[in-house]
Design brief:
globular, 7-stranded mixed sheet, alpha+beta, Nuclear Transport Factor 2, Chain: A
């Protein structure tokens, strides 16, 4: 796993290139040196990290713009059930953004990546800092994320993103809820 230092937005693009450097074609993940990467996929992942920084400051429009214009796109985030379709995804993103302010991305760990000619699955752990809800103090938190991209011409667009705060082992009973 490679940790990216994103203590400020200016380094986000450079850091993402380092992480994406682990992506290999034909659906395999490896720490070996990958072949030349599709610059459009690198750009899409860079944009997702910039959109993360924006959502931690109350702005969901960056993420909204990354999603494909399809009725079957999906989003799962810590604040509710899965959203499906443009309208539900936009509403879920806006709801999530409304819960954060004064935030920053502290880093992103690339766990795995699976890429072929037309689709990419990127598995990461995001490390964030923000004021959450009505709390006046900053909180640091970590989120596991799976993002699925599909190629659309030269561009890569999100078709699914799932983020949740489960980044440590939990007892079996944790799946039962309260």
């Amino acid at each position: 796993m490679r940790t990216l230092d994103c203590t400020n937005l200016k380094c986000a693009g450079l850091s993402v290139v380092v992480a994406v450097g682990m992506i290999l074609g034909e659906g395999h993940a490896s720490s070996q040196t990958p072949p030349a990467l599709d610059r459009h996929l690198v750009t899409a992942i860079e944009q997702s990290h910039l959109a993360l920084a924006a959502i931690l400051n109350g702005n969901s429009k960056g993420y909204e713009a990354l999603f494909a214009d399809r009725d079957d796109i999906t989003l799962g985030n810590p604040f509710g059930p899965f959203a499906r379709g443009r309208a539900q995804v936009a509403a879920a993103l806006a709801n999530a953004a409304s819960k954060y302010h004064e935030g920053s991305v502290k880093g992103v760990d690339l766990v795995a990546s699976y890429v072929n000619q037309n689709s990419a699955c990127i598995v990461e752990v995001e490390h964030d800092r923000a004021k959450v809800g009505d709390r006046p103090d900053f909180a640091e938190f970590h989120v596991r994320v799976t993002s699925i991209y599909q190629r659309s011409g030269d561009a890569w667009r999100l078709v699914h993103r799932h983020a949740d705060p489960i980044t440590t082992a939990r007892p079996a009973e944790s799946v039962l809820g309260k």
